[in-house]
Design goal:
Two copies of one chain form a homodimer.
Chain A (H helix, E strand, L loop, with lengths): L2 H8 L3 H9 L6 H14 L5 H8 L4 E7 L3 H16 L3 E7 L5 H10 L4 E4 L6 H8 L5 E4 L10 E4 L1 H14 L5 E5 L5 H16 L6 E3 L5 H13 L6 E4 L2 H13 L9 E3 L16 E3 L2 H13 L8 E4 L2 E3 L7 H10 L1
Parallel strand pairs in A: 1-2, 1-3, 3-4, 4-5, 5-11, 6-7, 6-8, 8-9
Antiparallel strand pairs in A: 10-12
Chain A binds a DNA duplex (16 and 16 nucleotides) through helix 2 and helix 4.
DNA sequence: CTGAAAGCGCTAACAT
DNA sequence: ATGTTAGCGCTTTCAG
């Protein structure tokens, strides 16, 4: 079914049918009705592919997202929703291994999408710069390393970790351990730096342990090792919520109670952090807002130099740090 | 950058450049090298949009998926991965409200995708039939109601619930309650029927409570009401894992211990079900396998009549039902 | 093996 | 307000 078929059926030119759909105001109401009726009858729908070829706009935004991780899934959902509101579609490119990225970016280039959201901590600066040098509108999502190279939107990792650190210190923590995700990523580095610096100001050290990933298992494993080494700190600051869930479960499996013996903080503000089972103290990322900004950067007029938007998150106080009284009584006795 | 530009640069015809990319074997090795070199230098990548216009294949599969729910996110990830392996892209259409479905299906039609995955419990049979009558290859994912109307792939809800029911009965449950999701959906109905029938065979009733959704909060709310009504059963069978997490947390928040006082079962086998914090007894859906079958149905030769594939899940025994001893001792005393 | 030429279905001047 | 016409970048006969 093409516009030509409909045109023949109605007895107008193909161009009129096309206009009836792409700019209805340019066609007489009566003609438009007849065209619409015929289209409905014949089951005609304009061909977006053909339209794109001519107009050079696809109304498709590509999202390059890691295929795993609770956090990315929530981000994806937000993008998909907000893009739908703007009549854009989301073409999904997920990858599990940074090595696949090359392929992904190649097949992406073929689709002449209107813009790309690059959401992954594990893209190195070199590649980023190369992608950024293309024509294609691009925005890096939550990748501190992208700052300056390409337009980017991130949560304020530094501020967020400082606030979490301040909170555990207020709650009496004197010895703090930090469990990171993947040390090579800029997100991990930025978060750790924020925590370490804030704690240093309170005269507290913050030894870093790399868990090697961002998933539950990684957190679980890292915390188990910490327990086995003995010498548990007052608080464990964890680089991400999913990791933190693993940390909490590992601790409690080994009889270490949270927060009575050890406080735990996360980062991200996943829905599950609010679930009663964990009720995690964390830094909630304003995902909707971040996504909104990213889309604005992508679809809006391109700035002369790459904009870097940093949005503050919100401290969520859960029961994994509610232990001021415990520490105060400890101090009384110590 | 077009094939014509590259052709001019190399000194061959545009057709040769196009062939060098779409069917390299039809072009002399020497020419191909020169074309490839020029393309790399000029940054040329074939335009998939233009290709699709001519070839009538987009290599894009659309997925229509609810925008919320842990389960759908895991399904989406599986699709995205497996489609990438087959060099297909995933165009995502998410919707939060069944009312939006109409719009979604319309914009979907414009993109002339090669196939559609319809994954949502809340599409009524009428609409399904209408969509199915189009040209477009289609597969319904985990929608028992679709069976017979359009090709479909689902987990064996009935068998799964029967096995869970058998398990709780073996573990000594004599009074069982069922917490459903959305009663109007075929998934909910099929699961409940399986549980109710299996329990009936053991002479056990299975009163149904609708929680009104599939999210954590719905499970939490439904369980809270159950507790407030008093009269707790030996086991609560829940229609989905995410609901079950809410149920467990609601019970424990009110001092009802799981599984000592009440056993809980889920359905889906989300990653979180294996997390130590919940360690839920559930029916694990073989998501990878389901997705594989769905893709095969979509991309393979179309059958004369709609195929309905039903795949059995796997029983996962967690600690939310490990309580045989408790019940046995109760029986001793009762 | 390579080139010439005709479209795929639509948009956007331009003309009427 | 509508029709005519020329492409968008590619694939694909058909010749050579």
């Amino acid at each position: 079914m093409t516009s030509t078929d409909v045109a023949a059926h109605v007895g107008v030119s193909q161009a009129t049918v096309a206009r009836a759909f792409s700019s209805p105001e340019k066609v007489a109401p009566a003609t438009r009705k007849r065209v619409e009726a015929a289209a409905a009858e014949l089951g005609y729908v304009p061909n977006a592919i053909a339209r794109s070829l001519k107009s050079q706009r696809t109304n498709i935004i590509a999202a390059v997202v890691p295929s795993v991780g609770e956090y990315w899934q929530s981000v994806l959902t937000a993008f998909s929703k907000q893009l739908a509101d703007r009549r854009q579609q989301l073409l999904l490119f997920s990858f599990s291994d940074p090595a696949q990225l090359e392929d992904v970016l190649t097949s992406l280039a073929q689709y002449r999408v209107d813009g790309v959201i690059l959401a992954s901590a594990s893209i190195d600066a070199g590649r980023l710069a190369r992608v950024g040098s293309q024509q294609l509108p691009l925005v890096a999502f939550n990748q501190p390393a992208a700052s300056g190279l390409v337009p980017s939107v991130s949560v304020d990792n530094d501020l967020g970790m400082r606030r979490l650190a301040a909170h555990v210190v207020e709650n009496g923590a004197r010895r703090v351990a930090y469990i990171g995700g993947v040390a090579a990523t800029s997100t991990d580095q930025t978060r750790y730096r924020g925590a370490a610096q804030a704690l240093a100001q309170a005269g507290i050290a913050c030894p870093y342990t790399e868990s090697g990933g961002w998933a539950y298992e990684h957190g679980y494993g890292a915390a188990r090792e910490l327990v086995e080494l003995g010498e548990l700190p007052d608080a464990i600051m964890v680089a991400g919520d999913e990791l933190a869930f693993g940390v909490i479960d590992a601790l409690e499996d080994r009889g270490v109670s949270v927060p009575t013996e050890v406080m735990v903080t996360g980062f991200d503000g996943l829905p599950q952090a609010s679930w009663a089972g964990y009720d995690l103290t964390t830094l909630t990322q304003p995902v909707e807002l971040l996504v909104e900004q990213a889309i604005a950067l992508l679809l809006g007029p391109s700035e002369p130099e790459p904009a870097d938007i940093v949005v503050a998150g919100e401290l969520r106080l859960g029961r994994t740090t509610k232990s001021s009284s415990i520490f105060e009584s400890r101090k009384d006795h110590g």
